[in-house]
Amino acid sequence: MTKSCRANRLSIIFFSLITIFCNLASAANFPTRPLVMIIPYAAGGSADVLGRVIADEMGKVIGQTVLPELKPGAGGNIGAEYVAKLAKPDGHTFLFASVSLSTSPSLAKLNFDPTKDLKAVAGVASIPSLMLVSNDSPFKNLAEFVSAVKANRIQASFGSSGNNTGSHLVGELFKSASGIEMTHIPYKGSGAVYPDLIAGRITVLTDVMGSSLPQAKGGMVRALAITSSKRSKLLPNVPTFAEQGYPGFEFGTWFGFFAPAAVPDEALKIVEKAILQALKSDAVKDRLDAVAASPLPGPGSEFEKWYLTDVQRWAKLVKEGRLQKVD
Questions:
Q1: Helix axes 46-62, 265-279, angle to 10 degrees
Q2: For 283, which of 87, 110, 151, 183 is 20 to 30 Å away at the CA?
């Protein structure tokens, strides 16, 4: 080996060691400023409420303030794209995502690839939804509703919190399962839907329990069905879709954390640990129990596998024609 080759090799080793040392030093000092939790949905919705509870508990664990920042729009894709493409990949900015991150690769035109441009950090939970009608509606169950639509006694419509959101997806899946036609009317967040539902300007809404449970208990709307596999102890008189003739009809709006794909593993592990610790807090557990949530795989590596499987599940539904792309 020549002296020049030996020198080049030593230089490579030296700079590699320097890089490793700098990364370790950076991880030891991380985080160096408040963290930003991007919530890509409207204020007051389930993601906003749950995200803020987790942010408070994370801050106690990680020793820095965790600042929730809303970036709603395009069914969650505006906020997701911001984290994937524009946020500095140093671990200080991360995404609190939901089910639209699984469906958008198949249903929407994206300027980024969530499966490549984002990295899973930690899974949180999956929350069932309620199919609701106005309390003044004549329908007491799914059979009455479907029968009226098929007999052309009503022109049915269903509201959602936006294209490709959970409330949109359940409506489309129920159209396919029941064989009925309903007009989709997207809103900017679930909170905007309820006045029209209560007034009867739209026929039904299927919304995640975090938002729909208070409405159902308040008496202004009536729950026809729940999307879980069994009845919830929170609303024991509300039957499942399966009980009403739709076996296998289940849906959960999941929540989890993602970061820019280029975030160093050392920083990612610190954020992951803080999230998992926050999920054990009484405040977060109480919030999840209050909406009948089921846990997801927590650690990033396990959640990543779960997420990619979910992406493929929705892609299959699109390929089968059970869901249509939305421009």
A1: 110
A2: 87
Can you name the CATH fold of 12-127+253-319?
Answer: D-Maltodextrin-Binding Protein; domain 2 (3.40.190)
Instruction: Please check whether residue 204 is in contact with residue 158, taking contact to mean a CB–CB distance below 8 angstroms.
Output: yes
Two structure tokens written together for 312? 């493929």
The mean predicted confidence, pLDDT, of the chain is: 92
176 φ/ψ angles, rounded to the nearest 5 degrees: -65, -45
Would you state the pLDDT for residue 17? 46
Distances (CA, A) of 53 to 97, 124, 134: 15, 12, 30
CB-CB contact of 89 with 258 (8 Å) = no
Q: What pLDDT shows up at residue 79?
A: 98
Please compute, for residue 306, the number of CA atoms within 13 A of its CA located in the half-sphere on the CB side. 21
Tokens in use for 100?
């639209």
Q: Return the structure tokens found at 24.
A: 């370790």
Architecture of domain 128-244: 3-Layer(aba) Sandwich (3.40)
Q: Which two tokens stand for residue 37?
A: 């939790």
Contact predicate 142/224, CB 8 Å: yes
Q: In whole angstroms, give the CA distance from residue 312 to residue 268.
A: 25
Q: Average pLDDT, stretch 124-153? A: 97
Q: Label each residue of 85-143 as H, E or C.
A: HHCCCCCCEEEEEECHHHHHHHHCCCCCCHHHHEEEEEEEEEEEEEEEEECCCCCCCHH
Residue ranges covered by each domain of the chain: 12-127+253-319, 128-244
pLDDT of residue 7: 52
